[in-house]
Amino acid sequence: MSAVTVPTPTAAERFPRPRGLVLAMLRLHRSALWFWLMLVAVAAGALLWATVPGADAAWAEYTGIGCDRPRPNLGCDDPGPANIRYQTVVALGTGVLGILPLLTGAWAGGALIGRELENGTAELAWTQSVTPARWLTAKLAVPALLLTVGTLTLTLLHRVLWSSNSTLIGAMDWREWHDDGVFEANGTVATAQALAALAVGVLAGLLLRRTLAALGVAVLAAASLVYILDDLRPHLWPVKTVTAAPGTLLGSDGMVVEDGALTAAGARIPFPACMGEPACANGTGITRYYADYHPASHFWPLQLAETGILLAVAALAVAAAFVLLRRRTGAAG
């Protein structure tokens, strides 16, 4: 009696290739996939170059003309070609993350959802044993994964650049930790912005069902969301208040939210027009100056607060998209 052997599953069987919705989606949107990979590669290459060779050349040029001395010459106000190249490349690497919400919203609203609903491709998929809910889940999950991996990669590279080149950045005094582009690229906000733009774009596509209309509304919504949160950012965490005698510079190392002068009664008033003159304080009744600001230690509280708002917006948009799809298709799942 011969023994019966059970076939051993191969590696391909244990780890099957992407099938169904995921594979179909990657094929359908392969142009967008390649564009995203190229964008990440270019930005990553720019940040890597700026971290070592670009920074070394810029610092050598900066110190070569004596700009690192206590009393630098006037020529230090005009950076040389090495510094210009360094700043341009860093701006390129950071700029990718800056425009990503607009690109993501435009693609999600136009090509990902709006075009498929307008052309009837989505309805065709729903007749091939694919429920509307599964279709929408794939449309959200696959881009969200790719966006998260790409943006976090660029964020980590930017943080390495920022920490390793702190001497050069501080000496040239051209970027601060709270500047919009730097703040977003150094933490979780850039990733959250992309995910929120994806969710808002998908909702716009489902609402309008037209490519161009959904694209325009998604871009407008993503831009508005980023703009509003930029304005709200200083108010997402309690400020630190410091006071000092007239003539002292306050909050220079942080994000100043409000500053001015204090009277003897403790009232806050704007800086007087005579500020800087010897007898100004005595003539206006000013006793001290004040500043409400965020020091560098508030970086992560502000980051996490803004990230939480963006993810909440994304979650609400995703929930609204599923509710809208269910009402329109009458599908249970």
From TrEMBL:
Domain of life per record: Bacteria
UniProt keyword annotations, A-Z: Membrane, Transmembrane, Transmembrane helix
Regions that span the bilayer: 33-52, 89-113, 140-162, 182-204, 211-229, 307-325
Signal sequence residues: none
Protein's UniProt name: ABC transporter permease
